[in-house]
Design a protein that fits this description.
120 residues; mainly alpha; 71% helix; globular
Amino acid sequence: MREHRIPNRIVLPAATICAALALAEGVHPSSGLYVGAALVALLLAVSLAAPAMLGMGDVKLALLILCALNAFAPLALLITLELYALIALYLLSRRGRAALKISLPLAPITTAACLIVLLL
């Protein structure tokens, strides 16, 4: 929490276990995993192109969500993007140009999106 990082020692083993369980169940083309994988690939591209904008920890967290939520992962990732956009618009409306200098962490927003999906 102090470093504002998502620890690899938690995310990577959890993603590996969840991926193994998802593969053991069998991946169905209609499961949404392919859409989720495309979203993770997009996040990876953004992270590689602009590391200050999106960290690799966020990409690894998205990968964990993809493996853990299976068919619900695309919905969780899309809700994450929507929540992020809403918060950014709110900050822009309240603080104007000063909001552009605020670093908005993605992990808490992603966690909230996952909880929303699980409660639906």
